[in-house]
Amino acid sequence: MTRSEEFYEETKKTNELPPAPPAVDPVVFRGMLGELVLAAGPTTEADPVGVLVSLMANVSALIGNGPHVQIGDTRHPLIVWPMLFGRTGAGRKGDATETADRLTLAAMPEAEGLFVSGLSSGEGLIERIRDPRDENDQGGTEDKRLRILEAEFGSVMARAKREGNTVGAVLREGWSGKALAVMNRLALRASSSHVVIIGHVTPREFRLRLAQTEMAGGTFNRFLPVYVERSKRLPLPEGIAPEVLSELGAQLRAAIERATRHGAVGLGQGARQLWEDHLYDELGCADDEEGAWSEFARRALPYCRRIAALYAVLDDRSEVDVGDLAAAAALVRYSIATAKFVLDRTLRNPRVDTLRRALDGVGEAGLSRGEVSALFGRNLAKQLLDRLLHEVMASGEYVEFRHSGERGRPSIRYRRATP
Fold first, then answer.
1. Quick check: 253 pLDDT over 70?
2. Distance (Å, rounded) from C-alpha 198 to C-alpha 83?
3. Strands 145-150 and 367-368, how do they pair?
4. CA proximity to 350, closest of 342, 340, 358, 362
5. Residue 413 belongs to what H/E stretch?
6. Which of 236, 232, 206, 247 lies closest to 83 in space, CA to CA?
């Protein structure tokens, strides 16, 4: 079943107005990361955007906490936490991260020990990167880098709900690269952290597991939601050829080593103007919305700055240019579209509400297209008006019908399906 067919079936079942499935802008495949993803594309069924964000996560872990962006008084490491949403099997979530891991470990095989799975508690995470207690302590480490893969993130969500579980609180601190600690008899502490998490979950399980209080607590809006599906059908996918993998790995290793030498990453003049004139207001829209998706998008602004800086340092630059920022903004837009798709079954669109109230009020006579346009001062462009009518009609609560006017000419009108 295609995406469109899936959405149509869901609409018929629920009589709701679902958002459109997200579509990625190819501009996100920029620079070194984009080249690697596109090179691997023909050999895997994984969604390229899933490979991209998994690769971003891996690289953001390996470059360490030196490269960063300063936003006000807050220091942001360039870590990216993607949450891959996809249907079981057809989403190819695992394939996406496996492809990214193969590329990353071809570049830096010594980093394999930093790639772990199994996020059970906050204490368990801190134990993995805790400070040595003394020179004889074999359990601690000075290397605070860690990449955690949670292929069943629904299980983490379930554990986070249990009373006394500290995973939520620790994750919120870890996303900022702060010191991690818990107040228990073990007094575990990591004086700094550079932890990256990749989560895999189906949209259905995420909705079932999610409680509104957890969203408000800010744990899950640290993640970058990314919807993935199988990109193509390959009965016998061969994966990246060894000789190609070796070449790509060497290129990625050189880029990572260069990136680690950078510190603060700023905005170039063109990027600064783009940010101030357009992106700041656009990507900050979640602050003015009340839908569940908006809680998931509260970190859109810092994520855009982090991702743009990651593009820059992998190109050995300490200044973000317009291309970096545009690519980062496109990826963040895709994540917002994913959040709307995953979390909101009916969009809270004031225009939709206005039209529905009007249709409810006029009864069997309904409204003509011109009368609908008049509701909005006849200021809506044709494309916007078409989209608005489509959204409302798609719910099944309203119908389009032909009406013969006084002169016998039929016209299209809109009304409620049932009184």
1. yes
2. 6
3. unpaired
4. 358
5. strand 410-416
6. 206
